[in-house]
Amino acid sequence: MKALEQKFCTTSAADAKWVQGLRKFFEYRELGVSEATGGAYNAHVIRVKKPVAEFPHTGLHVHDLEFQMIYILKGWIRFTYEGQGEFTFREGDSCLQPAGIVHDELACSDDLELIEFTAPADFDTHRIEAPADATD
């Protein structure tokens, strides 16, 4: 197996910069992994943007990526996964979301903080229309 070229990388909480990302109701703190791996991987901390102005609900969607994992640092978040059901994740919980799985964030606490790992770092997200019988 050929080793991926990587750079040494550290980040400091004291120097953290929180920016807008995929979801407008979240803030994202990049951990430098994307740059250190040439975009092969990413790791970032996600937290609810204050003040909470919008209910954080994403709708059914899927990401074009090879790997996605979350680890809850603080608070809670509830998802539904196609073929798996509904899950509420709390501090210390994790979830490996297999590539291509349709999912929906249903709700989260206003103190939510989680770390997300993805491969690759940049990927597309596609909304999925709910089946007509999903509202019955």
Keywords:
mainly beta; 41% strand; 3-stranded antiparallel beta sheet; 3% helix; Jelly Rolls
**How does CATH name the architecture?**
Sandwich
Q: Any idea what the shape is?
A: globular
* Uncertain residue ranges: none
**Strand element count:** 11
Helix content bin: under 10%
* Major sheet strand order: 1-2-3-10-5-8
Provide the succession of SSEs. EEHEEEEEEEEE
The CATH class name reads Mainly Beta
Averaged pLDDT: 87
Question: Can you characterise this structure?
Answer:
The chain has one helix spanning 33-36, and strands at residues 19-20, 26-30, 42-48, 61-63, 67-74, 76-81, 85-90, 94-96, 103-108, 113-119, 125-127. With 136 residues, it is mainly beta. The strands form 3 sheets. A 6-stranded antiparallel sheet has the order 1-2-3-10-5-8. The protein has a 3-stranded antiparallel sheet with strand order 7-6-9, with no helix packed on it. Strands 4-11 form a two-stranded antiparallel ribbon. Strand 1 and strand 2 (26-30) form a beta hairpin. The longest helix is centred in the N-terminal third of the chain and has 4 residues, at 33-36.
